[in-house]
Amino acid sequence: MATTTSSVTDICLAAQEASRQLAATDSATKDRALHAIADALVARTPEILEANGRDMDAGRENGLDAALLDRLLLDADRVAAIAAQVRDIAALPDPVGEVIDGKRLPNGLDVKKVRVPLGVVAVVYEARPNVTIDAAALCLKSGNAIVLRGSSSAAHSNAVLAGIAAQAAEEAGLPAGTIGLVAGGGREELAELATQTGIVDLIIPRGGEGLKNALKGVATVPVIYAASGNCHVFVDASADVATAVEIVLNAKTQRPGVCNAAETLLVHADAAPAVLPAALGALRDAGVELRVDGRTRALAGADLAAGLLDAGEEDWDTEFLALTLAVGVVDSVDEAIAHVNRHGSGHSEAIVTNDAAAARAFELGVDAACVYVNASTRFTDGGEFGMGAEIGNSTQKLHARGPIGLRELCAFKYVVTGDGHVRG
Amino acid sequence: MATTTSSVTDICLAAQEASRQLAATDSATKDRALHAIADALVARTPEILEANGRDMDAGRENGLDAALLDRLLLDADRVAAIAAQVRDIAALPDPVGEVIDGKRLPNGLDVKKVRVPLGVVAVVYEARPNVTIDAAALCLKSGNAIVLRGSSSAAHSNAVLAGIAAQAAEEAGLPAGTIGLVAGGGREELAELATQTGIVDLIIPRGGEGLKNALKGVATVPVIYAASGNCHVFVDASADVATAVEIVLNAKTQRPGVCNAAETLLVHADAAPAVLPAALGALRDAGVELRVDGRTRALAGADLAAGLLDAGEEDWDTEFLALTLAVGVVDSVDEAIAHVNRHGSGHSEAIVTNDAAAARAFELGVDAACVYVNASTRFTDGGEFGMGAEIGNSTQKLHARGPIGLRELCAFKYVVTGDGHVRG
């Protein structure tokens, strides 16, 4: 069972103990445990829904809004989807043991750089109880023990989900302590978890800015902060107008509330007379609020001008996460690159162009996790990239950049083999 | 010239500006700049020695001890060696632009994972002025701008060295700001440097625990802390006695003051009667102080027993960095692994064995940057590993583990190319 009543430190120590064994556990055993978890989730759906019902009741009493209640809600279909995701993760290749690099040194020593689990990964998250299982499955597959810390609003759901998963994993042969859940959802538990130096190897927050800021203030163990995305689409002088309009529309409107949606459109001055009326018209028709600079307004045409708002300086730095787009005209690829590097958050940046030199300049010059040439920013996603799944998306440069999949949940070690080699 | 009189923030901003250009600078240009730096160092040796003389005078006045003065000292040979090291770094393969991974997704998008510079790397260091040039050359080769912050005891030497390097780099076509030096060596400058979030991408401290602790208290930008090394040699039941003695002797005595030297010898009980007298005798003859557990003492033989000290609990956790070794007997490979994981610092750990199963268990079970089978721990080194050079050695698990060479001074980005792809 998940050790939901132990202290944070006890849970972390148990996870560390388990992690030593997990690092040497073969893929077949881990996959069996994942399938056992999926089976148990389906078989014990009534328990899960009963616990979730208690969280939903409390949420309604506490006045949670409809969106939060929907995130909290589980039903049989959602539980089945969670179980299916666990089976999908089981089917992914095991990253542990991959030989990343290897060679024989001139002195005959064999050096292998081998992927290994990080050890103990803590995941702190908010209202969605499905994260309990998604995160546990990703960590287990990558050979890590996991310590979960959800929010108090989902406490009953999380406790039952983690308990089912921990029991199934243990019965399938994994060490006790593989999946631990911190019972309290308060700031004290967060601080205790975030200061387990030498025990917890990584903390991943999955939640809003409040959660990230709470961690920033206290964490002494490494944290990978999931990204905010102030993403741009730059339409170059040579761009095909129809392609440009389609990409901008997709990047802005296909799912505006996510971090890889575009927030600013930049158009090369030479393309602007053709591109802007078409793009702005399509965006307006899709219900997008347009905040534009003076040059954009001048080129938009009388038909559109009335509906445009003037962009303020802060609009270039804003992640709207809504049907709002800042639009500006630039005179060159270099100006576009400079704008992106100044205002972007290093997430996903796109150029639409038919000019090979412009594409190359943008690829080299833009400092971001993902740089797109003639494609929508919306593809930045572990699933889309063929990683199978992701636990978040990093805009930091160390360790993991872009989607955090199974490999990014790993470290490596050097294994060096000789036959009595000593250093001269 | 190095901007030695600007504020820390100005230097960092200039470095960031330079880093944008450096990321797109080809290898030939960077290598030309490195050779220009080496040439200038040799040509301007008198200036360097004059400045170093002033630091040496001040050091003597301030009562620096002989070891510190020796670290501070430059002469024509040492300057020539520094210049030669720069040429060696120029000759290494450029890590920037390496395609780490790549594939075509089912939808036809091409995804390439490409190595790119981190951006701005700050290196904070102590008395050795040669670090000024070593660190600058490694960062320049890997396409990073560098901000250096040395100690006040080497201020004149560092200013001249950084000035020569910055001027040579700029004259060779690299952007101004590529090599910056923070003038003050005080804690205030350190704190200002360590909080340049969004400007400085990484800080690497090269120095003692005092420097690391000073950083830990203030840093908000990512830091890779160089390692302490509490390294072990475990002699398994099946080990060849002569091989075991040779490896232990090398790991302990070849250079006892460094982080990859062994600090504890563990011997399997089955091998102890043969190994201990031979190993302890050789170690004693090499002048090593031996702190042993009771079982070791009992097996050492009357000849050796008188010279042995009793190990205290703290000895298993101590990085002696001297001719001192803790010695214990264990009953199994698993006990050795558990001891290493409990007391080691995750640096370099060796097993001496002829048993394939024991070697495999140790490789899988020991959680360290470098795990050795039948080789001395002393090989953990960027040069030995064929990385050409290193800027430090990491015992952390995220991003860089083990030697930090040119590749470890890089991040990566995904470059995604389509022909109008949008997400459905």
UniProtKB/TrEMBL annotation, chains A, B:
One record GO biological process: L-proline biosynthetic process
GO cellular component, one term: cytoplasm
Subcellular location: Cytoplasm
Chief location: cytoplasm
Catalysis: reaction(s): L-glutamate 5-semialdehyde + phosphate + NADP(+) = L-glutamyl 5-phosphate + NADPH + H(+)
InterPro entries: Ald_DH/histidinol_DH (IPR016161), Ald_DH_C (IPR016163), Ald_DH_N (IPR016162), Aldehyde_DH_dom (IPR015590), Glu-5-SA_DH (IPR012134), GPR_dom (IPR000965)
A GO molecular-function descriptor: NADP binding
CDD domains named among the record's database cross-references: ALDH_F18-19_ProA-GPR
E.C. no: 1.2.1.41
Family of this protein: Belongs to the gamma-glutamyl phosphate reductase family.
UniProt name for this protein: Gamma-glutamyl phosphate reductase
Organism the protein comes from: Paraconexibacter algicola
Lineage: Bacteria, Bacillati, Actinomycetota, Thermoleophilia, Solirubrobacterales
Protein encoded by which gene: proA
